[in-house]
Structures are given as C-alpha cells and as structure tokens.
C-alpha cells in the first residue's frame, strides 16, 4: 500500500471539490448580481468538467481570467478555513459511518440466523412425526 499516493490522490480530489464549492458559491453570487454572467459560467461548467479542478481552472483562465481568479481566491479561502479541522472530522465521520455499517451488517446476519434456525425445529418435528407415523404401520 502506497500511503503517499493515497494522500496525493486524496489531496487532488479535495482540491477539486473545493474548486466545485467555489464555483457553486460564485454562481450563486452571480445569479443575484449578474445573471447573464452566471448563465455563461453555468454553460461553461456544463462544457468543462469540474471533476479535475485544475484543468477546469486552466480552461477558465483562457476564457474569463477574472472569474478564474475569483474562483481560485475563494477556493484558497475555503482550504484555509476547512483544513484546520478537516482531519479530525474525516476520522470521526469515517469511524461513525463504519460503526453504523458494521451494526447494520450484524443486525442483518443475526436476523438471517434467527429466521434460519427457527425453521429448523419445524423441519425436525415434521420428520420425527413422519418417523412415528411410519413406525405405527
């Protein structure tokens, strides 16, 4: 397991997600202050995937430099504000989610075991009744 690669890939995904959040924020602001520009940015985002935030910003820099700089500034602000408490929050959320998944899985498998075992006594009783019936003959 290459933890450095996992960390690098995670950082890239997080960076792209913060780009997406910055895009959403700017589009919401523009929809109130400059609807035609908000429409243009929405159309641009539809044509250029924000899944790779760096490629998205690079393409936006070629089209509308001021919007790209605005997104980069907002993304950086989000990163500064979020990264301080993010590691503990991620650990806590994953721990909680894993516990809930395990609990749900345990409940499902124990319910299957209970329902499976409850059908066995009936089958045993039925076969023992058949044996008694056969012995009477």
Protein described:
With 137 residues, the protein is mainly alpha-helical. 91% of the residues lie in helices and 0% in strands. Helix 1 (3-33) packs antiparallel against helix 2, helix 1 (3-33) crosses helix 4 (65-82) and helix 3 packs antiparallel against helix 4 (65-82). The chain is elongated. The model has no long low-confidence stretch (mean pLDDT 87).
Total DSSP helices: 5
Shape: elongated
The span between the termini is 69 Å
Helix residue percentage: over 70%
How many β strands by DSSP? 0
Give the integer mean of the pLDDT values: 87
Q: Give the structural class.
A: mainly alpha
Whole-angstrom Rg? 29 Å
Spell out the helices and strands N to C.
Answer: HHHHH
Strand-residue proportion: under 5%
Which residues form runs of ≥5 with pLDDT under 50? none
- Profile the largest sheet: none
Organism: Floridaenema flaviceps BLCC-F50
Biased composition (Basic and acidic residues): 122-137
Family: Belongs to the RbcX family.
Subunit structure: Homodimer. Interacts with the exposed C-terminal peptide of RbcL via its central cleft, contacts a second RbcL monomer via its peripheral polar surface.
